[in-house]
């Protein structure tokens, strides 16, 4: 649920903007109010296949919401959130270019496995976006949303690439790995990339009840994290013990399951941190509004109290307004930084993607050159898919890092050293679209060379050899059919078969290389288009955000100039009355600002308390 103090503060500030006739400031607060109305805190449960992710979700909510079995794997993300009554919906998006709302279908809880598991929906043939489960659970009442994702299969898998594109929109990530073995290279690679997109990451080691040596595995995992420079908590747990403890109300078993530490992490480090962020961002928005409202009143108050200074005050305010208006021009430094930065970033990202894919294409062509595509195609296609997914994922991670850095540069140039709040960069709009429309690598049609074709080809070559050598030996008085001509026919026939087999292999290699080039071109075209669209969207968000800030400042200064000029024309009696009114209004604005500062201070106190 939203922080009540933040909601009350925004509502009070909205009343102030209405009373002081500043609808432009009210628009900003309405966005703040809308943000507070959606308190969802998304936690992604990620990991390789069959590591206990679904069972972990079930144990957290103490309900069998996610299908679990030895031969069942998750194929569709399952979102578990709070609801007054248990309910299940399957959601299908129409596509990134379709403005229609997603298609939602209610299904019985018992049929969820038919839609989200590999057994019921292999490779997500139903093209579902996700399934949504609502449960009346206290753990979820604070806005916590658990997302059970398909096994990532490493950074280079299809699920891994899809999960990677969702990470920037998550508030936290739980990397799940069982206690059977220490972290693998794909897991460490995925974890390193995840930390760059969502720094709030914890590592969960599951199935401690099955493996007595789990403490040694935790030590090895901690060593891997330390060497990789990854600072993340490691939480060993047993979902089976947690479920049994909840059923039997066994406190000792609950303690042994390790879920108390995991739940404390979710509530104190994830949900509480999101609440702190709400407090700080709301306080900053309200303080900015108070500053804008107070600027006009202070200017008029100064002019009313000292009319002789009004002319100089108006000149200063006019100069400040000119500078604020300059921020709205295309020639402003922050505008230039933004435009040039996005253009450079698009070029760099496109080059990075093409460079990665060209290297893959060279390796692929070498593999096809060294072997017969007909013998290795299945393994080759899987390798190709993994390499391309790895390249796209790594390119996306770098794009996100560079975009955040660019946003910081734009903010610095806009404020010239002052602290400016940045908008949320919408990487989540890319979910399911980063190369999602790229088809699989197509296998070229193989020309059959069976026994019949071999016999026909051999006879054709043998006939030519027999006829040629037979005619030559006939000069020596031998018949056309003699041992020499027959042997030559067999040799020529065998050679013709071998040459034909070699020709067909070279043809398969050439067609396979062309298929690889077409696939690389398709991936380059689609992923580059998605990356450019994402960067252009970020550019528009940053441009609109800072333009609105410049307009707010310009409006405040324009109102201040008008108020200062008007103050000079008032008589003594009106001036004294107006001074009292302005002081009273400023007191109210200052009181509103003090409430905002207290809200921000509460966030700091809560954070300190949780860490202690």
Automatic annotation (TrEMBL):
The keyword ATP-binding does not apply. Keywords: Membrane, Transmembrane, Transmembrane helix. It holds the Pfam family Dynamin_N. Residues 43-195 form the Dynamin N-terminal domain. The keyword Membrane applies. The chain crosses the membrane at residues 463-493. SUPFAM superfamilies: P-loop containing nucleoside triphosphate hydrolases. This is Dynamin. It comes from Pseudonocardia sulfidoxydans NBRC 16205.
């Amino acid at each position: 649920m939203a922080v009540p103090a933040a909601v009350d503060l925004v509502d009070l500030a909205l009343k102030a903007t209405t009373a002081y006739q500043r609808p432009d400031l009210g628009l900003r607060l309405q966005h703040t109010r809308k943000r507070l109305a959606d308190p969802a805190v998304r936690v992604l449960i990620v990991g390789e296949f069959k590591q206990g992710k679904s069972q972990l979700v079930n144990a957290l909510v103490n309900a069998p919401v996610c299908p679990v079995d030895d031969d069942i794997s998750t194929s569709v993300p399952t979102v578990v959130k709070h609801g007054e009554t248990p309910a299940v919906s399957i959601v299908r998006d129409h596509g990134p270019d379709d403005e229609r709302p997603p298609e939602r279908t209610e299904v019985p809880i018992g049929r969820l496995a038919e839609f989200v598991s590999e057994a019921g929906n292999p490779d997500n043939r139903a093209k579902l976006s996700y399934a949504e489960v609502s449960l009346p659970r206290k753990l979820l009442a604070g806005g916590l949303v658990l997302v059970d994702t398909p096994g990532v299969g490493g950074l280079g898998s299809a699920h891994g690439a899809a999960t990677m594109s969702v990470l920037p929109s998550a508030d936290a990530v739980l990397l799940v790995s069982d206690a059977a073995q220490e972290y693998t290279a794909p897991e460490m690679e995925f974890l390193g990339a995840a930390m760059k997109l969502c720094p709030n990451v914890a590592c969960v080691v599951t199935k401690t009840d099955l493996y007595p040596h789990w403490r040694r595995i935790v030590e090895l995992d901690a060593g891997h994290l330390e060497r990789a420079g990854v600072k993340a908590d490691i939480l060993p747990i047993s979902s089976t013990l947690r479920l049994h403890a909840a059923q039997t109300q066994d406190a000792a078993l609950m303690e042994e399951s390790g879920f108390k530490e995991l739940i404390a992490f979710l509530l104190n480090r994830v949900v509480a941190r999101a609440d702190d962020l709400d407090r700080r961002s709301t306080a900053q928005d309200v303080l900015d509004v108070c500053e804008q409202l107070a600027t006009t009143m202070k200017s008029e108050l100064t002019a009313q109290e000292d009319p002789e200074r009004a002319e100089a005050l108006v000149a200063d305010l006019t100069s400040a307004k000119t500078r604020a208006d300059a921020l709205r021009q295309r020639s402003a430094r922050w505008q230039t930084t933004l435009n040039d930065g996005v253009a450079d970033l698009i070029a760099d990202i496109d080059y990075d993607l093409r460079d990665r894919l060209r290297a893959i294409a060279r390796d692929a062509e070498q593999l096809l050159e060294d072997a017969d595509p007909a013998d290795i195609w299945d393994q080759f296609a899987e390798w190709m898919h993994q390499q391309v997914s790895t390249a796209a994922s790594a390119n996306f991670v770098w794009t996100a890092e560079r975009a955040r850095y660019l946003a910081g540069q734009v903010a610095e140039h806009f404020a010239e050293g002052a602290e400016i709040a940045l908008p949320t960069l919408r990487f989540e709009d890319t979910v399911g679209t980063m190369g999602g429309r790229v088809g699989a690598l197509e296998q070229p049609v193989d020309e059959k060379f069976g026994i019949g074709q071999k016999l026909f080809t051999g006879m054709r070559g043998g006939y030519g050899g027999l006829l040629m050598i037979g005619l030559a030996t006939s000069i020596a008085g031998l018949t056309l059919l003699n041992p020499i001509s027959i042997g030559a026919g067999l040799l020529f026939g065998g050679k013709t078969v071998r040459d034909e087999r070699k020709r067909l292999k070279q043809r398969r290699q050439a067609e396979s290389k062309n298929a690889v080039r077409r696939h690389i071109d398709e991936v380059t075209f689609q992923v580059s288009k998605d990356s450019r669209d994402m960067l252009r969207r970020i550019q528009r968000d940053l441009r609109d955000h800072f333009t609105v800030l410049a307009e707010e400042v310009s409006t405040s200064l324009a109102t201040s100039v008008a108020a200062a000029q008007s103050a000079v024309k008032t008589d003594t009696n009106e001036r004294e009355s107006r001074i009292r009114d302005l002081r009273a209004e400023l007191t109210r604005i200052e009181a509103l600002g003090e409430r905002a500062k207290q809200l921000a201070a509460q966030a700091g106190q809560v954070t300190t308390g949780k860490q202690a």
